[in-house]
Amino acid sequence: MEVSIAHSAELLHRANHIILTAHIHPDGDALGSLLALNAYLSAQGKQVRMLLDDEVPRTFKFLADWEKIEKPDSSEIEADLLVVLDASDLERVGKVRNAVKAPILNLDHHISNLKFADYWYVDSQAAATGEIIFKILNAVQATVTADMATALFTAIATDCGFFRFANTSTETLRFASELVALGAKPHIISEYLDTKPLAVIAALPKVLETLEIVDCGQGRQIAALTLRQEILADLREDTEGFINYPRNIEGVEIAVMFKETDNSVRVSLRSKTVDVSKIALGFGGGGHARAAGCTVAEPLSKAKRLIMEAAKKQLAKGVSIK
Amino acid sequence: MEVSIAHSAELLHRANHIILTAHIHPDGDALGSLLALNAYLSAQGKQVRMLLDDEVPRTFKFLADWEKIEKPDSSEIEADLLVVLDASDLERVGKVRNAVKAPILNLDHHISNLKFADYWYVDSQAAATGEIIFKILNAVQATVTADMATALFTAIATDCGFFRFANTSTETLRFASELVALGAKPHIISEYLDTKPLAVIAALPKVLETLEIVDCGQGRQIAALTLRQEILADLREDTEGFINYPRNIEGVEIAVMFKETDNSVRVSLRSKTVDVSKIALGFGGGGHARAAGCTVAEPLSKAKRLIMEAAKKQLAKGVSIK
């Protein structure tokens, strides 16, 4: 059943033995929400465990208590409540799904949420699940420590591109403001989040060498980057942010990044004024108007040709999303 | 004399013919403050002109009314008030200084402000002069249009590195939140601000090839980029942001960028835990603990050696600024 913030708080209040989890491939929102909620419930004297069927990425190891996050093993755990954070379906929590026997409370902000849980609070207007956790903490007048504020600021900032994405609302920034008042330090947090392995910076020249620009007339361009398997091996999949290079070039309306895998090509699309989700949908993918993706089961050269043709057609339609 | 927000508002209210100006090499804060204040005063039916002794950089030409900004010519202008925005001394407004005969109101946030004006409001705690303008507009209960909100959001966001710098306060983010409520769109603004000429992206591989990393033991490193004159010619001085590449590498404590000029080398320093203003001061420069700069009147190779030695010494002291 659908629950309110107050009801969610009540469910947490009534439970004593609580398991918290979040989606695999955890991002800042999953981890920040997990750690902040864990800190609050632990301070309430509850028996809490954080289970996550994945590693904590190095980037987020500045968050307090990350090392208390456990991986699920084969043993079955009984609890009063399993809280599933930032996951729109139960598949996304991996092995935790079968490891825990408990009623499920799902707190999430994905519009694609499948409402799989016993209790769910899904706010697709929230930029991050971290906003929902902060609302719950405010509703119960919780003491928010600097560590919790840091975790929640990280959750919110990572999911809205550090206040650059279209989901950055007046509430997003107000929460960020309140979290700074509670001890979150944007300059420290951003420093940790922006840190990259040397391999990523060192690979950048090779990546940028693949830059192709197609002029579609009237000063409107499509720009593409291609990551071959050799480069991807060096990068260990750490390719986030590369697509911003073509995207940020003056005159570029559509940016594309091709990532070669063994038998297909993963395609990321970004745009300024063109609805690129339409292009992605045409290849069985999806996403938003400004950011979408798909996988094309063709060799690299053919995949590139197909996508670039589709992008040109979409650009020619001249429909603006602004 | 020092004035309050209310007194500043009163001075603006009493004047009819008002000239607005800001510092040369205008940034987002100078231009956003200028345009927002101009919009408010014009709506009040006042005779307002914006004078700026410089070009408006392309990046900021999305701000409404930028084309109304005039360059001062040789004629002398009399006015009831000259408002000097975001400038800490009168030199910084160039020819406007002599072109306008009027009492001066200076609104600024630089700690180095020389208090040169007839009336000054200087708040060094403000992340941007845009915050001060917003306070004045709020004090007089001005109608803030979406265009004005966009100008002020741009002013604030550019001066705090889009909420990443240490000057990002709880008030900075609260103002940003209120400006979004008034119609500023962070995703549109950031898109304009992030746009770069192709030449800058195309030069990046060459720039990154100059990356040097000096290991100082205990996993602490100094990383340097060197921009020779040839590359700088391609870039037309558009080198902002390059220093973030060495700065963001895992393990790097001090990042340095050397820019070769005809007879000296301009040095930018960034750090995470070391006070680099001490290094800059040693060469007649200055700045903050985390961001400083200086000019060394030596050939490139000697300048590099001197700075890298000083950086190693500063790192060895092991004093943390966090």
From TrEMBL, chains A, B:
Q: Name one GO molecular function term.
A: hydrolase activity
The protein's matches in InterPro entries, at most eight in alphabetical order, are given as: DDH_dom (IPR001667), DHH_sf (IPR038763), DHHA1_dom (IPR003156), Oligoribo/pAp-PDE_c-di-AMP_PDE (IPR051319)
Its top-level enzyme class, in one word, is hydrolase
- Which UniProt keywords are listed? Hydrolase
Where does the DDH domain lie? 18-156
**Protein name as annotated:** Bifunctional oligoribonuclease and PAP phosphatase NrnA
* Origin: domain of life: Bacteria
Q: Where is the DHHA1 domain?
A: 240-315
Q: Which gene encodes it?
A: nrnA
What EC identifiers does the entry list?
Answer: 3.1.-.-
Query: Which source organism?
Result: Sporomusa termitida
